[in-house]
Amino acid sequence: MAKQFDVLNPATEDVIAQVPDTGKDEWLAALGRAVEAQRAWAEFSPRGRAEVLRAVYEKITARTDEFARTMTKEMGKPLAEAKGEVAYGAEYFRWFAEEAVRIPGRLGRAPAGNGDIAVTRVPVGPVLAITPWNFPLAMATRKIAPAMAAGCPIVVKPAAETPLTMLLVADVIGEAVAEAGGPKDLVQILTTTDSAGLSETLMADERLRKITFTGSTAVGKILVKQSADNLLRTSMELGGNAPFVVCEDADLDLVVECAMQAKMRNGGEACIAANRFIVHESLAGEFTERLTQRMSEVTMGNGLDDGVTLGPMITAKQRDGIAELVDKAVAAGATVTTGGEVPEGKGYFYPATVLIDVPADAPILRQEIFGPVATVTTFADLNEGIAAANDTEFGLAAYGFSENVHTCHRLAEELKAGMVGINRGAISDAAAPFGGIKQSGFGREGGAEGIDEYLNVKYLAL
Ligand code: NAD
Predict the structure, then answer these.
(1) Do β-strands 373-379 and 274-280 pair in parallel, antiparallel, or remain unpaired?
(2) Band of residue 10 on the pLDDT scale cut at 50, 70, 90
(3) Domains in the chain: how many in total?
(4) Same domain, 211 and 266
(5) Which residues line ligand 1 (CB under 6 A)?
(6) Which domain holds residue 223?
(7) Does the active-site annotation cover 237?
(8) Is residue 450 part of a domain?
(9) Which residues are in the Aldehyde dehydrogenase domain (predicted)?
(10) What pLDDT does residue 419 have?
């Protein structure tokens, strides 16, 4: 029998499935089939492609419960959040179904009057997508949907921790494509424990024309270097270290609500999770008290159980990394106001935790936490608050809160990130361009911009 690997439930540590551990021959064969699929897909009109995407949206939505349960079992998030991700992940198919028929071009007279300049857009070619475990559906659909809409075949390598949701989505896409008479290998999923081998092999093959990656900055840099040999198009959605700046005149009721959203969505295992709460000193005491209260009310447990609002972390390694960041901060002088202790028993759990008096050089303020831990630091003057917010190598998301329109404008202008939420704790939207600057990478997913990542500009001199 072909090689397989285990998939675990992080809440129970039980093996819940085994999936194929594919190797080099399978990867290269998949790329060959992708090339063929592009030819067949090119025969579809933009409207024809749009209708297939729309069908995928309908089919995922109709199977929300099955998708959500699979996701909770392999990833751990509470079922209600998993259902939220199904809606969000499916939305990329609806959005890009609508974009597939709006790929822009232009025609203009050449300045010298000796002809016309026509600009059109053509599919990049076969795409490799490598995705993380934190949003097993949405991190892939925001790549698959625009690739399909643009006319590109795509091979997806999901994280080894969470391949099941992706295998389910492949079934649904396969069904929709087949019903329309399209190529069955337009979207292929390759599960493997050898991620590095897969990316090296496929990126060395000149039939591949694009790599799109969501994951850590360290791996993103390796892939960008590897992409140089064949000068592949690249999109890199990497790590974050989001600041959450609370100004003197902010509305604390709103702030606390948004703080819980920005911190606790996905148990903090989100690249746009607020890592650093930077609060004006006049509000810091009350903010900490109210945040501590809300965090201590979080119910930790198996995501399939009713009432659970915080599931396990994905692996023991991830949980231990969070515990280490907290312990180092405490050793350096920080105080825990709630949480901070790894519970006994099965499952990779870490509790909702708040830390105050964190020294400016503590690693927890520098690195992505990727867990349910909030750090609170203070500022006296907004210049100082904004400088602290921007004092990070990352630039994915930032959040700012004020009731003064001039201060809001200033925060929007001066917070250095690809995405800024003003008086908002939840910013993700399939219709908006998601992506970062600095060590958070480049490229955008979603919005009108998302499809450009899969199109080459072609100029026709007429
Ligand atoms: P990771 O970089 O370890 O893994 C991501 C993917 O890359 C997985 O599929 C993994 O198997 C694969 N991979 C690992 N090493 C590889 C290698 N050498 N070559 C090729 N592929 C390799 O990241 P993770 O721990 O799974 O995910 C968490 C990270 O993802 C965080 O840093 C988070 O901020 C980031 N993330 C970013 C976004 C975004 O849109 N910017 C969204 C979600 C997560």
Answers:
(1) parallel
(2) very high
(3) 2
(4) no
(5) 130-134, 139, 157, 159-160, 195-196, 199, 214-216, 219, 222, 237-240, 271, 368, 370, 396, 436
(6) 4-238+440-461
(7) yes
(8) yes
(9) 3-459
(10) 98
